[in-house]
Amino acid sequence: MAHKKGQGSVRNGRDSLSKRRGLKAYGGQAVTVGSIIVTQCGTKFHPGRFVRIAKDCSIFSLVEGKVYFDQGGRRINVQPNDPTSTAIC
Q: Could you tell me which InterPro entries the record lists for this protein (predicted)?
């Protein structure tokens, strides 16, 4: 009889947690300043007006307003609640 476990049970048993990437705010939904709209790997979605892209390619809002998409749903913009918004765009 073997006195050690088989190697298969030692090397298995690891599984990474999912990263929960994707859209966090949809078209027409209200967002606040700094709220994340999309988490992604690479640039599946591109930043538009009043949004920026983070170092990990997440897209976040610069102003308070509503999210909308254009260019076939690939560019993300935020329509500010305040029409005289002075955020850098």
A: Ribosomal_bL27
Element (H, E) at 10: helix 7-11
- With beta carbons less than 8 A apart as the criterion, state whether 68 and 27 touch: yes
What is residue 8's predicted lDDT score, i.e. its pLDDT? Answer: 56
Query: Across the beta sheet with 75-80, what order do the strands follow?
Result: 30-31, 65-70, 75-80, 46-47
42-70 per-position pLDDT tens digit: 999 999 999 999 999 999 999 999 999 99
- Residue 40 · residue 58 · CB < 8 Å: yes
Topology given in CATH for the domain delimited by 22-80: OB fold (Dihydrolipoamide Acetyltransferase, E2P) (2.40.50)
**pTM for the whole thing?**
0.79
